[in-house]
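Private note to self, pasted from the team thread so I don't lose it. Backbone tokens:
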């Protein structure tokens, strides 16, 4: 048995006790009554890192404090930033918890408590992983930085502000985040891409008041009909967005990625059955997983206009509107998509109405090349700890803080979730499998050793 395996074995009980200590702190970021608990949780994290001889700091913010720590530079080796959060979701409805949310309980091989998997258990794997390497090898093989925030569940506003002015301080070669799930119970995953988003509202204004559809219909441009036409003109029946320039910057899927996706144990019939549909449409020429993860899309999110009440009312509405979004893929710029949309709208706007476009949030997609040495190191570490090589997956949604890291630090972001999708995150009886907790610590330790083999020129 290697030093580190022996150490992990000898300390397994202590690791679990430490996680229980962390879980007993009711650090609910959304509830002002828990402000003292937030500070206590930050101090708890800071003390773990201080005991590893890292330089640590609790950074006050307008909201909850940030915990920052770093180790000395290791010449020739990369710098690795671990991000996570010590805050948790509220616990209501309390009556559905089998045991109290802040009294960690062992059940069916799990530790059950609020924050068990999201994200205290997963954050702690990266602290204990480094502790284990230090104890077994006597030194850290890379420069480590930790940035653990207390506002992830309420929007990360203070972290965004901090990163805007402290990019140099937290500069790194790769960011490690464990705040999610494996592909399935026994199949670990490396998530290497997120889609971006561009979100809009459109308002179509016609006559100065609702009109009688008998007296005026046919002689006046109908805003609701016009809205329907405009929305329908954005995408065709084959799932192609028709706005000129929309696909110009799209990063196409590589053959390797398409093979990876096709090899995943994804049950399409079950996927449709779960959401209660018998089939679907989407962009022609792409599989369901490709459509979800790696192709840009257009979706109407809400639509309104005219009479919505009981029975019939013969009205020609004065206005109509909709909210819609494009999911973007890596290399597409939300600003460019907004500009293309604005330029195209007059072409589809008939006389008799005015069209107003309101721009909401936008975020670009994120991608880490599969042949990045950091991804390869992570794959070896995960395989070592979980006993099988990870699958490479992407996520169809956006994670704003990941986008911020990617854009501000220009670093590869490794999303290594140790959880399971039935862990009840944000719900009663949140849990984290103890097997996964220990495998996560082992993976984290091996990851640091693997990353230490990467030579920086
Ligand atoms: Zn989380």
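Design output:
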């Amino acid at each position: 048995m290697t030093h580190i395996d022996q150490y992990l074995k000898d300390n397994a009980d202590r690791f679990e006790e430490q996680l229980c200590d962390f879980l007993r702190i009711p650090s609910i970021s959304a509830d002002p009554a828990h402000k003292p608990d937030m500070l206590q949780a930050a101090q708890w994290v800071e003390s773990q890192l201080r005991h590893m001889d890292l330089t640590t700091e609790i950074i006050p913010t307008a909201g909850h404090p940030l915990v920052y720590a770093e180790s000395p530079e290791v010449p020739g080796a990369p710098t690795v930033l671990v991000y996570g959060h010590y805050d948790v979701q509220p616990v209501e409805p309390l009556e559905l918890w089998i045991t109290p949310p802040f009294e960690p309980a062992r059940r069916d091989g799990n530790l059950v408590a609020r924050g068990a998997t999201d994200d205290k258990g997963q954050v702690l794997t990266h602290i204990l992983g480094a502790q284990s390497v230090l104890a077994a090898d006597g030194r850290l093989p890379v420069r480590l930085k930790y940035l653990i925030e207390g506002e992830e569940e309420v929007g990360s506003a203070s972290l965004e502000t901090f990163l805007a002015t402290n990019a140099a301080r937290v500069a790194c070669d790769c960011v490690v985040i464990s705040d999610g799930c494996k592909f399935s119970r026994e199949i670990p995953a490396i998530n290497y891409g997120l889609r971006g988003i561009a979100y809009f509202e459109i308002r179509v204004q016609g006559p100065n008041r609702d009109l009688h559809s008998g007296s005026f219909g046919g002689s006046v441009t109908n805003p609701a009909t016009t809205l329907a036409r405009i929305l329908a003109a954005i995408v065709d029946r084959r799932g192609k967005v028709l706005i000129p320039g929309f696909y110009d910057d799209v990063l196409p899927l590589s053959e390797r990625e398409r093979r990876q996706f096709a090899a995943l144990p994804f049950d399409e019939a079950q996927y449709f059955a779960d959401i209660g549909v018998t089939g679907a449409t989407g962009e022609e020429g792409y599989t369901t997983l490709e459509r979800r993860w790696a192709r840009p899309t257009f979706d109407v999110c809400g639509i309104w206009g005219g009479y919505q009440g009981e029975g019939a009312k013969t009205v020609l509405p004065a206005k109509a509107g909709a909210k819609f979004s494009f999911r973007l893929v890596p290399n597409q710029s939300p600003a460019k998509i907004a500009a293309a949309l604005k330029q195209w709208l007059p072409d589809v706007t008939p006389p008799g109405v005015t069209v107003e476009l309101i721009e909401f949030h936008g975020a670009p997609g994120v991608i880490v090349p599969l042949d990045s040495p950091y991804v390869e190191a992570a794959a070896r570490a995960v395989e070592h700890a979980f006993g099988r090589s990870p699958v490479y997956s992407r996520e169809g949604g956006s994670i704003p803080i990941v986008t911020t890291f990617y854009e501000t630090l220009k670093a590869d972001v490794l999303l290594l979730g140790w959880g399971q999708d039935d862990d009840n995150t944000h719900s009663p009886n949140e849990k984290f499998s103890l097997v996964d907790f220990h495998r996560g610590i082992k993976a984290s330790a091996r990851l640091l050793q693997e990353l230490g083999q990467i030579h920086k020129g």
